[in-house]
Every structure is written in structure tokens, then in C-alpha cells.
Amino acid sequence: MPRLPDPATLRELKAAVGKESWLESAQAVAPFVSDFRRLYHGATPLVLLPRDVDEVARILSICNREEIGVVPHGGNTSYCGAATPDEAGGQIVLSMRRLNRVRRIDAADYSMVVEAGCTLAETQAAAREADRLFPLSLGSEGTAQIGGNLSTNAGGTAVLRYGMMRDLVLGLEVVLADGRVLKGLKSLRKDNTGYDVKSLFVGAEGTLGVITAACLKLFPQPADTATALVGIDLPQHALDLLARLRTAAGDQVTSFELMPQLAVELTVKHIPGVADPLYQGTPWYLLIELSSPNPQQNLLTLLTGTLEAAAAAGTIRDAMLASSIGQAQAMWKLRESVPEAQRRHGASLKHDVSVPVSAIPRLIEAGSALVHRLAPEGDVVSYGHAGDGNLHFNVSQKPDTDIKSFIARGPVLELAMFDLVESLGGSISAEHGIGRLKAAEFARRADPVELAVMHELKRALDPKGIMNPGKVLCAR
Ligand code: 2HG
Ligand code: ZN
């Protein structure tokens, strides 16, 4: 069990990073001890802001020797409290924000090496300057950092085409709990030399070591894009349309996002400048994007033809194709503002879950029935990455209901929702991770052998349990 640091150790840690690279006053550490959703309010005696991998290595070897807990901290956009220290006040926060260099871009190799503290938006921009695409795309990309994206195996809105963060990483540099540095920044697509060690650190949420840099996959920049907002009556129709699109356009289908009418209404109501472009409201909306690096692909014609065929077959009711970049951006703003609109509307209960794509209609039907029965003060706002089988099965507090009784419904509803998801062969965390929020449920529901393997790996790589204690795995 990690211990509380004594004054001599705190002095040694400050000396490891040098002047102006640490914070300790209550005011200065405040942004590092509460999570984005304000679910957790921890405490820390010290926030360290190292500038390079050697400083991170020095910090970890001191913390390991003294058995002090370390909480790696990126853009603080975790939905699960993964980057927040506990309330006991003994854990050191390790901010990665000063490790933010782009070390190398190799356009011909379609790869780049960036440090963990680069934001996702900075990484995308650096790739763009080299006429390449780094395709991970998510609402918090201006703040979220690459280290956090890797540590949570982030997803977002282009997973259908490019995969999750795990699929986008070629190599990693990692500082292990004892301060050793694993130098694995190779950019190879083919490397069959034993275990895939780097993959262990992806999705580990900083519990096995600290990712300090990554070699990432790049792609050609899209030169042709077609975007549409489509109105449908039933979730089953979304699956029919997805199949048509995949047959017509293969992996050019980049995004396939589903929103209920209520999500659109809340966003139009609460977010200035957002409008519903469809002529008539429909129960469900789809935001679809096709993209290709080939400027001659004529994706607009392809998308129009596919939508016309779907309309003739009765699976779509209305559609608006973006005829300018501005219109496409407005459609994306509508989709990406749904979480903020929900926040402005009132309290919400969130469930980031996934099921096989074919089970999405059943999830929506059975999940909505659960909400009506177990949280009658709430409205279902289940939206998200339908093409990946990932819905944010969220529930928004109804206006004029009591917030306390609504929030009190959370635990029972969550259990029922997770049972449902499991019965459909799904996952209780699709893309937001486990953190502290879901650690207990994960321990209860994981395959016992798989969980035992995870604990064995944790003991092997972090025998003193200093790395992000209490996240992902519960203490045994
Ligand atoms: C999204 O897809 C994000 O918009 C946030 O993953 C989801 O706020 C949420 O529940
Ligand atoms: Zn999402």
C-alpha cells in the first residue's frame, strides 16, 4: 500500500524537476484534484510538471523507493475520474503538459512521434502540416492529451474507419514504476518479435507505467468528403442504411452517429447557433460522413444515390446533404454539442456502453424500458457511435423534477443497464474507460481469469502498487 510522503521526500521530488516545475499551494493544485465531471474531489501535497522523460524516470524511482502513489494527469477530460488523486492527500500528481514536443514526422513512413502532453488537436495540426491525417477525433480534442488518449484507448467519431487509439499506435516510450525507461518508439507495421508489450499500456489508465511519447500511424488527408444528416423512424433502419453504405462505399464510411430527436431538440435549445436542418422532425437522426483521399471519388453522388435507394425502400424519411464545408461543420456542431446541451439542461446519468452493432435496436428498446421503470424523473438521451455499437445511453433529468431523487436512481439503473448490456454480449465501458468510477463493477463482472491475469501483470510491473492506485483494478 502506498504511503504518505514525508517532507524530505517532497524536497527530493521538487529537486528532481527543478525550479518552477512544481506546484503545492492549495490554489495552484486545485485544477489537478477535481475531475472534469466534478464527481471526485481529491487532495495532493505536490503537482510535478516534468519537461522530459529523464525527469519522469527520476520522479518514479523516488516514488517507488518511498512507496508513494503517483497519478498521471493529462488534459483532465476523463469521464471516470481516472486522473484525480484520492482524498487521503498522499498521492503525487504528475502533470504531462510540459512534455509536449512533436519529436518527428515522417510523411513517407506515414508516422509521427509525439510526446504525451501534446493535445490531440496539436497532434492533428502537426500531421496536417505534413499533408497527413491523424484520424482520432473527439469533442474534447482541444484539451485531451495524447498520453490520456492512449491510456484510455480513446475512441470518438471516426472509429468505424480508423479504429480506436490502440489501432493507431505503432510504438511507445514508457517509464515503468521503478523508473526504468522502455524505449519502444519503432514505427514498424510488421514486427513479430514476441509479446506486444506496448499494448499493455494502452487502456491501462496509467496503472502500469507512464507513457511519455508515442509513435502514431498517419493516413492520407481526405480530399473528398460527403456529409449528411438523415432522419429515420426506427433504430433498425439505421442498421439497414449502414449496411447499404458499407456495400456502396466500403471503408470510406468514416462516421455513423445516431441521435434521438430529444438530443437534437436539447442542443438547438441550449447551444447558440445550432439549428435542426431537417424539414420535419423524425424520431431519430443520423450524422453520416464518407471520406476519401481521392478527389475524383465523387462521394456526394455516391451518398445521394445510397440515400435515394434507402428512401425508396422506406428506411429513411428525410435527409439533408451538406453542400459546403460550413454546412458540414454545422451538422458536426449539432452532434458534438449534445453532451454540453445535456449538461446545460440539468443533471444526467451516463452509461457509455457497447453491444454488437446488430443489437443496437434491442439495447435501445430494453434500455429505454429500464429508464421508464427505474428512473421515471429522467428522459432517455441515448446517442453516439452507432456504427461502432457504442451508445452513450444517457438520461437527462426532466424539467421540474427533484434533482436529488433523480440522482438517487443512478446506482440501481446502472446495475440494470450493465446487466442488460452484458446479456447482449456488450461492454460496460465502450470508450471512456474504467477509472475509479467503474472499478468495482468491472471487478464484479470481468471474467475471473482475465481479471486475475490483469492483477498478475499489475504485480509484475508495479509490485508496490504506486501507479494510479484505485483506478481500473480494485486493491485485493
Ligand atoms: C461523445 O461521444 C462523448 O460525445 C461524450 O463521448 C459522451 O457525454 C457523454 O456522455
Ligand atoms: Zn463518445
SSE layout and pairing:
Elements: H1 7-17, E1 22-23, H2 26-33, E2 47-48, H3 53-66, E3 70-73, E4 92-95, E5 102-106, E6 111-115, H4 120-129, E7 132-133, H5 146-151, H6 159-162, E8 169-176, E9 181-184, H7 197-201, E10 209-217, E11 219-220, E12 224-232, H8 235-249, E13 253-260, H9 261-270, E14 284-292, H10 299-312, E15 318-321, H11 325-336, H12 338-345, E16 348-349, E17 352-354, H13 360-374, E18 378-385, E19 390-397, H14 403-408, H15 410-423, H16 439-445, H17 448-461
Parallel strand pairs: 2-4, 3-4
Antiparallel strand pairs: 1-2, 5-6, 6-10, 7-11, 8-9, 8-10, 12-14, 12-15, 13-14, 16-19, 17-19, 18-19
Helix pairs in contact: 1-3, 8-10, 9-12, 13-15
The chain binds (2R)-2-hydroxypentanedioic acid and zinc ion.
Describe the structure.
This protein has 476 residues and is α+β, with helices and mostly antiparallel strands. Among the domains are: 119 residues, Uridine Diphospho-n-acetylenolpyruvylglucosamine Reductase, domain 3; 115 residues, Alpha-Beta Plaits (2-Layer Sandwich), CATH 3.30.70; 78 residues, Alpha-Beta Plaits (2-Layer Sandwich). Helix content is 36%, strand content 21%. Strands 5-6-10-8-9 form a 5-stranded antiparallel beta sheet. A 4-stranded mixed beta sheet has the order 1-2-4-3. The protein has a 4-stranded antiparallel beta sheet with strand order 13-14-12-15, sandwiched between helices. Strand 8 and strand 9 form a beta hairpin. Helix 9 crosses helix 12 and helix 13 runs antiparallel to helix 15. The longest helix is centred in the middle third of the chain and has 15 residues. The chain is globular. The model has no long low-confidence stretch (mean pLDDT 97). The site of (2R)-2-hydroxypentanedioic acid (2HG) has 6 residues, from strand 19.
